[in-house]
Amino acid sequence: MDPDDLVTSIPANLLDTKSLELGIRSYAGRVQLDGTGTAKNNLFYWFFESQTCSPHVPVADQQDLISATPLVIWLNGGPGASSLIGLFLENGPLTITEDTVGTVSLTTTSWNQEAHLLYWDQPLGAGYSHSDDPKHDEYVEDEAELGHMFWQALQKFFQLHPEYAQCPLYVCGESYAGKYVPAIALEIDKQNGRKAGQHIDLRGIAVGNGWITPELSLGLMIDYVYTTGFIGLGQREELLRDYAKVQAEIKEGSLAEATKDGNALVDKTLAYGGKFDIYDVRGWKGLPWETLKAYLNTDPVRKALHVPLGLEWTCEDNSGPVADALVEDNMADASDKYGALIDKSDGGAKRYKVLLYTGNFDTACGFRSTEEILDRLMRDRDPEWHGAPRLIWQQPPGDPKGFVRQRGNLTQVSIPDSGHEVPAYQPETCREMLYNWLFERPFHGHDPQGPLA
């Protein structure tokens, strides 16, 4: 008997004139969590089994393979963004054309080629995740609350699909998920320590262009925009005065005011620069997703994904009620959570792997902020991180794919010719990076400072 959340096909276009067969095991729906009132909270998920597993072979006959395959969770940020943006525009098995037809097709660069993929709309209020009464969504106000709600949702998912409960699990995401991901990982670690619920075999986290230390990222944004010629010297000086006000508010703990003024600083910077794309300084418009929004707000799609007919799919980028509820969280520094995960060990062996990667044309939370965050974190933990070899990841005669630094359980990768959403700009390279990290495959290349350089 097929599970109630099985997805075998979805509408192949906006008008639902034909269907697209997925050809793999896929499950979608919403897990129900208790709220503080009478309404239930519902978090939406969409799962895709690894292509290394066969949908034609019974689960019981390939359970060992299923359990040995990594389970990668993907989260977009915002706050308020749906992770279906990542699914259709970045690293998932599906894509959609940005036109009036909205043709949906399978991709060749999906991360589920060798791993299970699980997308979640979270926190409550993002995507298809709403309470039974969407007018009374219980929006989370901090990462501790978010992490616990997500842990509860994972428990529900593994109750529905115990065949994936033993998989090595990696929590991954980008942008504001730079806050979500470590908070969720630490909550899983805490609950595992308490032996609460289903043990989750957490192995590591990966974050792309993470919003981690906002104070640092805002200052570096101004420098980057000045260096690339989008603002002049006088404008830079004015923006730095505004930035000093945000810094003072953060220092005194006025985080809501810092978020408001930080957002105003970003808006002014963009206005002075002619409204360039903050996520890719090479262009003027971000990734297009209007057709995807129209597609996900059709009832044939809702029916295929087992969500209530008429339920609005919502997606916001640092605006709307989800962002409003996280107004104090927005400017809080999350770097200590990464330090905690890097430090955790069992009998001397590091418990979790950590990957931070960046696209080099992002002005919001790009390379320099990640580089300096890691330098600060590792200064006392491992002073040799600062001078660790920085490999040019390259397989001649091709151009460099990226720049890699690895030491202990920490990996940092910078990927050129890419904006904020690295999997969208460099899909093949980003997937190879992920698999090298997941499966401990080598990053082929050379050390330009080595003896043979």
From TrEMBL:
Keywords: Carboxypeptidase, Glycoprotein, Hydrolase, Protease, Signal
InterPro entries linked to this entry: AB_hydrolase_fold (IPR029058), Peptidase_S10 (IPR001563), Ser_caboxypep_his_AS (IPR033124), Ser_caboxypep_ser_AS (IPR018202)
Signal peptide from the UniProt entry: none
GO terms of biological process kind: proteolysis
Domain of life: Bacteria
One Pfam family of this chain: Peptidase_S10
The keyword Transmembrane is assigned to this record: no
GO molecular function: serine-type carboxypeptidase activity
Name of the molecule in the record: Carboxypeptidase
